[in-house]
Design goal:
There is one protein chain. With 609 residues, the protein is α+β, with helices and mostly antiparallel strands. It has 3 domains: 30-98 and 166-211, Sandwich (Jelly Rolls), CATH 2.60.120.10; 217-420, Jelly Rolls; 431-600, 2-Layer Sandwich (Alpha-Beta Plaits), CATH 3.30.70.20. Helix content is 24%, strand content 21%. The strands form 7 sheets. Strands 11, 12, 13, 14, 15 and 16 form a 6-stranded antiparallel β-sheet that branches. The chain has a 4-stranded antiparallel β-sheet with strand order 1-10-3-8. A hairpin with a 2-residue loop joins β18 (471-477) and β19 (480-484). The chain starts with 29 loop residues before the first helix and ends in a 9-residue tail after the last helix. Residues 70-211, 239-338 form the Cyclic nucleotide-binding domain. GO terms for molecular function: 4 iron, 4 sulfur cluster binding; metal ion binding. It comes from Roseimaritima multifibrata.
């Protein structure tokens, strides 16, 4: 027993972790906090807007850090994910309004090999694993890597020329940027570069959320989102893309924004995945409940949600939804088209947040007036043909427990709720429980076809410096194995916190790649990956000598992971090398590819319960 602990019976008293045990900047002192309180917007904030447990001074002291950015530093880059916003305190920065070539930002696209080069590589075995040329270790052309105040920073070469040849928006003291990506777990929409010596306050998303307790600050943030991005996000939804401008404006004005669950869901993932499916479903925040009349249309802006239907005393998973998908449209459309004398039907399924969920919710009356008339017939949800009301119009006042007592609402195949999957319930719950629905390029192996020859592993090793980027192990559900390989996730939490932006998503392919010349080997991405699919390795030269840091003499580490063999003309070497067609890279964020793949291999519900 640790010193200071006293056991009483079967209990051991311990100190509960506190909200600010780990400050964002341990070096932030009281004088800096006092100075920040003299600067806008904090000088206008009222201390009374914040609870005693999370005062304004505490937010500045623990959820913020001061940062100096010299001219030319890339502060954030378009496409990267982040968990913090930046407030300009002094100096100026420029947000580029046009895209820069990937090589200027340090994200060089791998050169596509010819078939001859690929075959030569296949037969050439490197003498030493993870060997590199010196030019591959140090950064060359493109951005420059330097140290600023003990942190790694990336600088744009000839940034003056870049600014002259590209449209940009200058941001000065008092202006905020990056808040949309921080709050809503979305990619950065612009590259921001320091144009003068700039002093910035970086605010992590937890603090940003607390600062919204100040009503004027919250209104300013919400107004910025509504005026700049809301209509863009609405138009990205197929059912809303044909709304005329006046109807779109009325929809935007009516939207209510709500979030559920923890933004950093990966922190608790290892605990929740061990829960039985029924307990896991019960622990998830409830967004909408089966058996209640729909009052709003829910559009998922970020994260994942579980669709479930009552089964006995609990719930069974019927599908899951992701970014851009809708919930409640089928019931709303059905009720809008029903004969006047027929009572409305309730929601046929429940919606729960899986980890973190961010939503836009549109009131039902606005949907009826400004959305339904403009949805194309091909995108209009199917009518629900068969259902039982269990109390008719009074179903809205009926407790869920009472609705479930008589079993789930039966539906005909033609009138199944939108989004409900034909996949077996056990498989669906397995996918959601292990967050495999996050994977856009998951490695799936049919164990009935796999002979364990390891040709896939050998091909990967040959393509990647003698060291395979995956292990032929992983979670299994019946005859399906989900190998331990990078899934190039829809919500890539590994990209959050990288100090140089070395890990990034390719905008054309969606592949999450690591650009080694600006990888500083900090291990942030490996620690953040909830699936343990990123490894840190020591690298060496072609003669087998390990690279060492010239200042500290410590080994040079690089993050390594599957890159989908972007340089190979055949695509992923693991798939091409499998002699039994047992392996596939598949998008699990959408249920359709998995169902099609199982049908093609004759795998039906009887094989996988």
């Amino acid at each position: 027993m640790a010193l200071g602990e006293e056991s009483t019976g079967n209990t051991v008293p311990v100190r509960r972790p506190q909200r600010w045990d780990e400050p964002f900047d341990p070096g932030m002192d009281e004088s800096e906090v006092a100075w920040l309180l003299t600067r806008p917007p904090f000088v206008q904030m009222s201390e009374n807007a914040f609870p005693r447990g999370t005062p304004l001074k505490g937010i500045l002291r623990n959820d913020c850090r001061l940062r100096r950015s010299p001219p030319g530093e890339i502060i954030v880059r378009e496409g990267d994910y982040g968990n913090s916003a930046f407030l300009v305190l002094a100096g100026s920065v420029d947000a580029l309004l046009s895209k820069l070539p990937p090589e200027q930002l340090g994200h060089q696209v791998p050169e596509q090999l010819s078939w001859r080069q690929a075959l030569k590589q296949l037969w050439r075995r490197p003498t030493f694993a993870e060997s590199r040329d010196r030019s591959e270790v140090n950064i060359g052309l493109g951005p420059r890597l330097s140290t600023v105040d003990h942190r790694k920073a990336v600088f744009l070469q000839d940034f003056d020329g870049v600014l002259r040849s590209n449209k940009s928006l200058e941001l000065g003291p008092g202006e905020l940027f990056g808040e949309i990506a921080a709050m809503f777990r979305s990619p950065r929409t612009a590259t921001v570069i320091a144009t003068t010596e700039a002093t910035l306050l970086e605010i992590r998303w937890q603090g940003l959320r607390l600062l919204r307790r100040d009503l004027p600050f919250a209104q300013q943030m919400e107004q910025h989102y509504r005026s700049t991005w809301l209509k863009v996000h609405l138009k990205e939804t197929p059912q809303l893309r044909y709304l005329p401008a006046d109807a779109l404006q009325r929809v935007a004005d009516s939207v209510v924004m709500r979030s559920y669950g923890r933004n950093e869901w990966n922190a608790e993932f290892r605990k929740t995945r061990e829960l039985p499916a029924a307990e896991q479903i019960q622990s998830e925040p409830l967004v909408a409940s089966e058996g209640h009349l729909p009052t709003e249309l829910t559009l998922i802006r970020a994260g994942f949600a579980r669709l479930s239907r009552m089964h006995g005393a609990g719930h069974q998973t019927s599908a899951y939804l992701g970014k851009g998908q809708l919930f409640g449209l089928q019931e709303i459309a059905h009720n809008a088209r029903r004969p006047e004398q027929t009572p409305p039907i309730p929601l046929q399924q429940s919606l729960r947040a899986v980890g973190f969920l961010d939503t836009l919710q549109i009131p039902i009356e606005v949907v009826a007036a400004d959305v339904l008339p403009y949805i194309r017939a091909s995108e209009m949800p199917r009518p629900i043909l068969d259902f039982q009301r269990r109390g008719g119009a009074a179903i809205n006042q009926t407790a869920n427990k009472e609705v479930g007592a008589a079993g789930p609402v039966p539906l005909s195949a033609a009138g199944r709720p939108d989004g409900e999957s034909d996949l077996p319930t056990g498989l669906l719950e397995f996918l959601v429980q292990n967050r495999l629905n996050n994977g856009q390029q998951a490695m799936l192996i049919d164990l009935h076809r796999c002979t364990r020859c390891d040709d896939c592993v050998k091909a990967c090793a040959t393509t990647h410096d003698g060291n395979p980027r995956f292990a032929r192990i992983g979670m299994s559900h019946q005859r399906l194995q989900f190998a331990q390989a990078c899934m190039h996730c829809q919500d890539p939490v590994c990209m959050i916190g990288c100090p140089t932006g070395a890990i990034a998503r390719d905008s054309a392919t969606g592949t999450v790649r690591i650009h080694e010349p600006i990888c500083v080997g900090c291990g942030t991405c490996a620690a953040a990956c909830p699936y343990q699919n990123i490894q840190m390795v020591e690298i060496r030269d072609k003669n087998g000598r390990f690279f060492r840091d010239e200042e500290t003499a410590m080994p040079i580490l690089k993050a390594t992971k599957c890159d989908m063999c972007q340089s190979q003309p055949s695509g992923p070497a693991c798939v091409a090398a499998c002699p039994h067609d047992a392996l596939v890279r598949i998008d699990l964020s959408n249920l359709a590819p998995l169902g099609t793949w199982m049908q093609e291999r004759g795998i039906d519900s009887g094989d996988i319960p």
